[in-house]
Amino acid sequence: MTGYGKAVLQLPTKKVTIEIKSLNSKSLDLNVRIPSHYKEKELAVRKKLASALVRGKVDFSIYIEMTADETSTTVNHRVVKDYIQQLRNVVQTGGNDDVELLKMAVRMPDALKTDREELDENEWTLINDSVDLAISEIVQYRTDEAASLEIDFKERIKNINTYLEEVKALDGDRVENVKIRLKKAIDDLKVATDENRFEQELIYYLEKLDINEEKVRLANHLEYFMQTLASEDSNGKKLGFIVQEMGREINTTGSKANFAPMQKAVIQMKNELEQIKEQILNVL
């Protein structure tokens, strides 16, 4: 969702700069700054941004820089003269102090008047086209970033798959290791045991440590993630839900592993998944 777009429009009397910045957000958080004489167009701009950007913390700004010699602010001569005369009467001075009186007069209310700039529809049409250009630029920025994210996701899913295969390969050794440790613990107690009862308890214990379901579900989640990533309606929220389910299966596998080599593989899977979680926030 991060991105940046900018467009600059040179008009006869002013330079118009349009900027759009976007950061990650669960929804669309839109902040629009537009000069007062364009305010009536703000709603249309908001709709256009919402339609194009969908999600993100978006800051949109239009900056105006006057480039012509003309100014919309002028001195109100009649009012200033009247102020000077009144001030002269108050302080009872001659004409020698008129400069000081003028400095005071121009600070008084209504000494300067500013002509309100009206919206020019032809001018706005040009500005609106520049808004479209800025939106196109930020959309392209997001598209380029998405391409790099897709490559990263695929690589990390591939890595998790590799570690999952390692977990599967270690499962047999893990079960045998559990049997040996339990048998040794019983032998260390130096008490007589019923072999049949021991086998029954061992089977019960191993069933609690069984991770076959977790391995199958994790493999399915990995495949579903890749399918969703490749689909036209792929979206960050859906991918985020799949990642949560992947994390659930990996955590359960780790808690049941009870075997150091397998736990190392689980830690590697968790590391890859955390990297995906961080980047998934940047997907629409």
Structure description:
- The strands form two sheets. A four-stranded mixed β-sheet has the order 1-2-4-3.
- Helix 1 links the parallel strand 3 and strand 4.
- It is α+β, with helices and mostly antiparallel strands and 284 residues long.
- The chain is elongated, with a radius of gyration of 36 Å.
Essential attributes:
single chain; 284 residues; alpha+beta; 4-stranded mixed sheet; two-stranded antiparallel ribbon; 8 helices; 6 strands
The biggest beta sheet is recorded as: 4 strands, mixed
Main-sheet strand order equals: 1-2-4-3
Low-confidence stretches: none
Alpha plus pi helix count: 8
Could you give a quick summary of the protein structure above?
The protein has 284 residues and is α+β, with helices and mostly antiparallel strands. It has helices at residues 42-53, 77-91, 98-105, 121-189, 195-208, 212-230, 236-257, 260-280; strands spanning 3-10, 14-23, 28-33, 56-66, 73-75, 112-114. The longest helix has 69 residues, at 121-189.
